[in-house]
Amino acid sequence: MIKIAAVVVTFNRLSLLKECIQSLQNQTRILDEIIIVNNSSTDGTYEWLKEQQNLTVITQENSYSAGGQYTGIKYATEKGYDWIWCLDCDVIADKKALELLLEFGVANKDNLGFLSSTIFFGDGNLAYPNIPELDAPYNVLNSVIKNQPIPILSASFGSILLPREVVYQVGLPSKDFFIWGDDAEFTLRIIKYGYKGFLVTKSLAEHKNDSNEMHPFQNIDIECLKFKYGLRNMVYVSIMRNQIVAGSTLRGILSGIGFTLRVYRQRKKNGILNKLKTSFTIITLLFNGIFFRPSIDFPKR
């Protein structure tokens, strides 16, 4: 029998967490375990989770999305689950989402690294934070023509399904990423090890985010953790992607520079002091990303 566990990371999103859990409990393919990693929520999540049955709850110090997925995936892998389904707590999965992921995964398990659902925003458009990085155009177009899942290079933790053995081979998500970019690095690392990733277009989920922004760095405070960790992480991911696809670190660094320049142009800067502060922060984070060396841990067999 195939055993599957879901891993959901949450922090102060109780109402959405309830919806997410309900969608998991309504799956046409019943889950063997639902693991909730609670990053020390302060909105009543801890108290509500204590009252629930048929949930495995791990409460830890807030280590953001990267640390939460690290804990959940490590627990599920070491417990021996064949497949691990990773989700954000604000993602509501269609009732057949897991069934369709698993159907393709079981039939194409040789060299399979990860599978992603198609994630929409509430207005029916694709959710920008969850759009995967597509493989080469020929491979993508060939799959579209044949009405098959689309090959991808990276995906978000919105809804991805992993075989256990892949985690043993490539390691766990790096806790050093904290927030933003941790999922891109993790799935790119899986590709780097020679595995394949696919977008299963018929497996659907809804991302109940507050907004559906194409440029998330445009308006957030440059002092906030999402900006500081996110920009550094995405520069690192840009370098990693180019190393994998083009075999060039230099091209990756240039791509990272281009990314930070776009972020700078998108910012709304009023006054010379604000412009200088923005420039200094972005340049600092660019170099942090270039020299970032995240640690990778492996689960115990």
Can you give a write-up of this model?
The chain is an alpha/beta fold. It folds into 2 domains: 4-207, Spore Coat Polysaccharide Biosynthesis Protein SpsA, Chain A; 225-290, no CATH class. 43% of the residues lie in helices and 20% in strands. It contains 10 helices and 10 strands. It has helices at 14-25, 45-50, 64-78, 97-107, 137-145, 164-170, 182-192, 225-245, 249-266, 272-290; strands at 4-10, 33-38, 56-59, 83-88, 91-93, 112-120, 133-134, 150-154, 159-163, 196-207. Strands 1, 2, 3, 4, 5, 6, 7, 8, 9 and 10 form a 10-stranded mixed beta sheet that branches. Strand 1, helix 1 and strand 2 form a beta-alpha-beta unit. The longest helix is centred in the last third of the chain and has 21 residues, at 225-245. The model has no long low-confidence stretch (mean pLDDT 94).
What is the number of independent domains? 2
- How much helix, percentage-wise, in residues? 40-55%
Indicate the mean pLDDT: 94
Unreliable sequence segments: none
In one word, what is the shape?
globular
Number of helices: 10
Strand content: 15-25%
Our Rg estimate from Cα atoms comes to 19 Å
What would CATH call the homologous superfamily of the largest domain? Spore Coat Polysaccharide Biosynthesis Protein SpsA, Chain A
CATH-defined architecture of the largest domain: Alpha-Beta Complex
Structural class: alpha/beta
End-to-end separation in angstroms reads 20 Å
